[in-house]
TrEMBL record:
Gene3D superfamilies (UniProt xref): Leucine-rich Repeat Variant, Phosphorylase Kinase, domain 1, Transferase(Phosphotransferase) domain 1
HEAT repeats: 356-394
PANTHER family per UniProt: N-TERMINAL KINASE-LIKE PROTEIN, SCY1-RELATED S/T PROTEIN KINASE-LIKE
Record's protein name: Scy1-related s/t protein kinase like protein
Annotated keywords: Kinase, Transferase
Transmembrane intervals: none
Segments of skewed composition (Polar residues): 562-586, 614-629
Renumbered residue ranges of the record's region Disordered: 552-629
GO MF annotation terms: kinase activity
Superkingdom classification of source: Eukaryota
Natural source organism: Babesia gibsoni
Length: 650
């Protein structure tokens, strides 16, 4: 058993105590320990800590000071016992007048510090008590609302060893000690018979049952009933607030006639073994002894379980363990990332940058194709967590390597990723990315050609106007000549969705000729979509045609005087493809300033990759005759964002 004690105390002890005390910890449930509790900060590292102080007082007529004895007993216990669910000591300072203990930051049990599902917290306390009973031959003695604390990560741990005794100590002797302790004076008074033959461990079991009742009463909102300073502690009255499946266990724990095997309870009781949070955390803590198939199965099921795990526990307890295992089982990284990214959505940006981003950055630079593919697929979820500096200074170069990858899947995902990257890189990098996308318009894989055309249309709001005029029309010209039907559709849809970015001159000189050229296409659907696109552009020119005004659209910048603004300040007037869509598989986003936008239905072509088309309907159909009216009567399917050439990979 001695392996669970430190042979030499590893806790620094001396006169230099580099902790700053900030504020006392107060709770409405009283103080049930001899130490005064403060929150502080490590001066050297700036780490939040908790500080426990005890000042020696006068002794009684018999030369005793019971509070001092309790304080010194706590010091002996907490400085030597090492366990994940026992409060960790950072620094100790002891003098002739006082004892000061600095520990990791912790908080009292309260409605705000307890998760809505406390099963994991109870599991941690059961585990710690079982450890004391079986490995250290110790009874804790203070399983109370202030003998258990909550750490920054939401985990529960034992914190006060003032009443800790050997297992062989009788309950009668331990209760006699408790009657002299602050907890008894504050109202926490265990109701066990003073049976001399009963082990002190039984008082711990009674405390576990009582704590369960107290916590669930607190979570139910009955705070006053939990205040044992004002009301007599009536555990049986609190028992009704606990879940029904715990009633038998609570009765056994609090019965003097039952000696409960705590490890068996943890392993077999449905309250613990059927709880998703408990199962996930206990498995994660045992990653180092699990086989690769077991870990693979765990991560295959974890994404579906995450919504049932409290956010704080997932972020602060589960995520750190997951990040560790990525480097042990590198082949499982793609499936691990499927759980990491959803969790990251709930953490603070600063925490993400400090704890998760270094791993993401390292993985982007890894040569493993499966890892690269997974990261690219997850970019819609990752992008909101990353800023311009992350992309432009760190991630952009590793990303664009995917354009030249021999794997068509990686090339395709790299193309789709540019929609999310373009608004967060500098202009030089934007130009480089656009040139690479232009090469993809002529890729050997037809679906990559289609997705490149769509991507280029979606990123127009973020590009410099001269770059758009130089590149985009040529991309559409190439796409309209592509034998693959989807490329022609994508080009026409892109023109219809983004013509609002072009001035009158460019609409007449470039866009109308491109759209009109499709009226001779061999496919009827392309011809019809071409006609819709022509009418949409003509509608935007109607003001110029009828009044002779040559002023370009207020929100357009191409083909005329260029506003001095960053690319992200360009706002489309006509229906554009939204580059800020939350997923690269969302719908086209059509916005229009003062004009109605509808969609017309075009039958899907027989090709496996064919998509429905879109167009912008003129505001006043009567100006264009009955042919237009007849054409605009057809409703239209929503246009899918990107084509997926690998549906089996979804």
């Amino acid at each position: 058993m001695f392996k669970y004690f430190a042979a030499k105390c590893p806790i620094p002890k001396g006169s230099v105590f580099s902790q700053s005390t900030e504020e006392p910890v107060e709770t409405q449930f009283g103080s049930i320990q001899s130490y005064k509790w403060y929150q502080g900060t490590s001066k050297s590292e700036g780490v939040p800590t908790s500080i426990f102080k005890y000042s020696y007082g006068a002794k009684d007529n018999h030369g005793c000071n019971l509070d001092q004895e309790f304080a010194e007993r706590h010091l002996r216990g907490i400085r030597l016992l090492l366990h994940p669910n026992i409060l960790k000591v950072i620094k100790i300072k002891q003098s002739n007048t006082s004892i000061t203990i600095a520990t990791e930051r912790c908080y009292p049990l309260s409605a705000s510090s307890i998760s809505f599902d406390p099963a994991l917290g109870f599991y941690q306390i059961f585990s710690a008590i079982h450890f004391l009973h079986t490995k250290c031959n110790k009874a804790y003695g203070l399983i109370t609302p202030l003998g258990v604390v909550v750490r920054d990560d939401g985990s529960w741990c034992l914190s006060s060893f003032e009443c800790s005794v050997d297992n062989e100590t009788s309950v009668q002797r331990l209760i006699a000690d408790l009657k002299q302790h602050a907890s008894w004076r504050e109202g926490w008074r265990p109701s066990l018979p003073s049976n001399a033959a009963m082990s002190a461990r039984k008082l711990d079991q009674w405390g576990l049952g009582a704590l369960m009742c107290w916590v669930y009463t607190l979570l139910s909102g009955n705070v006053e009933r939990c205040n044992f300073r004002k009301q007599e502690l009536d555990i049986q009255a609190l028992r009704r607030y606990a879940p029904t499946n715990l009633h038998v266990l609570i009765d056994q724990l609090m019965s003097p006639d039952h000696d409960v095997n705590l490890q068996e309870v943890l392993d077999t009781h449905p309250y613990f073994c059927s709880n998703v949070t408990v199962s996930a955390i206990t498995f994660a803590l045992a990653f180092h002894i699990k086989t690769e198939p077991q870990i693979r199965e765990f991560f295959a099921n974890l994404p579906a379980s995450l919504p049932r795990i409290p956010i704080e526990i997932a972020c602060k307890q589960l995520l750190p363990e997951i990040l560790k295992v990525m480097y042990i089982h590198k082949s499982l990284v793609p499936s691990i990332l499927e759980s990491v990214v959803p969790i990251c959505k709930s953490i603070l940006v600063d925490e993400f940058k400090a704890k998760v981003y270094p791993h993401i950055s390292s993985l982007f630079k890894d040569n493993d194709r499966s890892i690269r593919f997974s990261l690219l697929k997850l970019m819609p979820e990752l992008e909101p967590l990353l800023d311009e500096r992350d992309f432009s200074e760190d991630l952009f170069e590793p990303m664009i390597v995917g354009f030249s990858d021999s794997s068509s899947q990686i090339r395709d995902e790299t193309v789709k990723t540019m929609v999310h990257v373009m608004k967060k890189i500098n202009r030089r990098q934007q130009q480089s990315a656009v040139m690479l996308l232009c090469k993809c318009v002529e890729d050997i894989e037809p679906t990559i050609r289609v997705n490149s055309i769509i991507c280029l249309a979606k990123i127009i709001p973020y590009l410099q106007n001269d770059l758009v005029l130089k590149v985009i029309p040529q991309v559409w010209r190439t796409g309209l000549q592509d034998p693959f039907l989807k490329s022609r559709f994508a080009s026409l849809e892109s023109i219809a969705a983004t013509y609002g970015f072009f001035g009158i001159e460019k609409k007449v000189e470039i866009l109308l000729p491109l759209a009109c050229s499709t009226l001779l296409d061999g496919d009827q659907q392309v011809r019809k979509l071409g006609m819709d696109t022509v009418y949409a552009i003509l509608e935007s020119l109607k003001g110029h045609v009828l009044t002779g005004e040559s002023k370009q659209d207020a929100t357009s910048w191409a083909g005329g005087a260029q506003p001095q603004s960053t690319p992200t300040q360009n706002t489309p007037k006509q229906g554009i493809i939204s580059p800020r869509s939350s997923s690269p598989r969302t719908e086209w986003s059509d916005t229009d300033a003062g004009k109605s936008i509808t969609r017309a239905k075009i039958p899907s072509p027989p090709d496996a990759w064919a998509a429905s088309a879109t167009h912008v309907q003129p505001q006043n159909n009567s100006a264009w005759g009955t042919t237009t009216n007849d054409m605009m009567k057809d409703p239209m399917h929503e246009l899918q964002d990107f084509f997926d050439p690998f549906p089996a990979k979804k």
